[in-house]
Amino acid sequence: MLRRALLTAAITASALGAPSAAHAGTYEVLSCGAAGGVNHAWTAETGGGSITATDACGSGGAFPADDVFTQYGGSLGVYTTLGAPSPAPGAYGYWRFEVPDPLRIVADRIIAHGHSESDGWRLLTESDAGELAHCQTNEPGSGISDHCDIGGGSYGMPLGNSGTITPAKWIRIGIRCTVAPCDTGSSAHAAGMAIYSDGETVSDPVAPSVGISPVTPQVSANGTVTATVSGSDQTGISRLELLVDGQVVASSARACDFTRVLPCEAPGATVAAALTSNGLTPGTHQIVARALDAAGNVASTGPQPVVAAQPANQTPIPTPTTPVPTTTPVPGSGSPTPTPTPGPGSTSTSAVKLKISTVSRSGSRVRVRGAVAKGCRSRLTIKLTAAGHTRSARLTVGSSGRWGVWLSGVRRHAKVRVKVSAKATGICSSGSASKSHS
């Protein structure tokens, strides 16, 4: 008598578990037919009887000719040897997927086909957390044999079923003799399990480590910063990055093969790359290194400040010469009394009339321009506040009354507030003005 049983997703509802509480990244290890994968992750384990393990995954090979395995291409399988003596209870054959600590398997998606022409065999999927599922609908010794398809409909439908499992260190799928007789003499080898496509989701709770070589604290105008960024991780580093003021300016991708349990190049070892940032604008910049692992976990260094000098060809704001006051004699006095000569549009009692005309920005630089009354040689203090940081500059305004200044190292996109104050000199009195810019 032949009975067919369907087991979907390789996991029964009672075996479903909550995902790990840790905020960890994940990645998927693909084998066999999953997205063209090959078997670099599963290992065979057999014992206690005439059981054979075959790895035709990714090679286009096939299992020995019989009514089950010839229907498929390359796959992983365990099966009893045709015509061999019946094994004793406890004999087994599995394909096993295992991850090292502290990694854990949290989900799988699998297509497999199992069959049993002898009711003593148990077709099952299990992990170190316990049995996930098995195919039998009969009780051992009942005389009823079984076929089952895992992860789809009859005979391995397209990949797409998945299950979340209690986090496990290993998972395996195969056959086990549970009660004698476990026959081996049928045309289908009496018992077998073939895996045609598989993807195992691995949780990685550990962020990589990252380092950066010391950078030059000062560079020339539009200068270059080169730093060696290094990182290490138990699954390997997938990418190294160099950031300036929070923006990625250079990166180096590493080789990662997601058909392997530890997918990226040199897992556990330190990898490094020399990364360069060109053309820094004048002012202070913050340099940061970042490393990412296969699961997308990120680690960053603390910022290192770098000051880019002002370009040599930038026209400085002119410093005017001090005007010479004229004098008029005071009647009845033998000495003259100095009398300031007002400039155009100004009188000896005029106020500074200080104002901020415009506040504009280019990247991390902010330009402030304004005016005072003509003829006032005012000494100005400009203070710019952005994102909790204040930068300041001082300058002396010429007789034209117009003034302007650049302030560098301002956080991009942060709202800025500018306050300008004037110190009284000559005929001009003190004053202040302020302006905001988003």
Which regions contain 5 or more consecutive residues with pLDDT less than 50? Answer: 1-23, 60-72, 152-161, 316-351
Instruction: Please report the number of helical segments.
Output: 0
Alpha carbon gap, first and last residue: 80 Å
Q: Mean pLDDT score, rounded?
A: 75
Number of domains: 3
Strand content: over 45%
Number of strands: 31
Q: SS-based structural class?
A: mainly beta
Largest sheet: 8 strands, mixed
Helix content: under 10%
What is the 3D shape?
Answer: rod-shaped
Radius of gyration: 39 Å
Write the layout of secondary structure elements.
Layout: E1 2-7, E2 25-32, E3 42-47, E4 51-55, E5 76-80, E6 92-98, E7 104-116, E8 121-127, E9 130-134, E10 145-150, E11 163-168, E12 170-177, E13 191-204, E14 209-212, E15 218-219, E16 225-232, E17 237-244, E18 247-253, E19 270-277, E20 283-293, E21 298-300, E22 304-308, E23 326-329, E24 336-339, E25 355-362, E26 365-371, E27 379-386, E28 389-396, E29 402-407, E30 416-423, E31 431-437
Parallel strand pairs: 1-10, 15-22
Antiparallel strand pairs: 2-13, 3-6, 4-5, 5-13, 6-12, 7-10, 7-11, 7-13, 8-9, 8-12, 14-16, 16-19, 17-18, 17-20, 20-21, 20-22, 23-24, 25-26, 26-29, 27-28, 27-30, 30-31
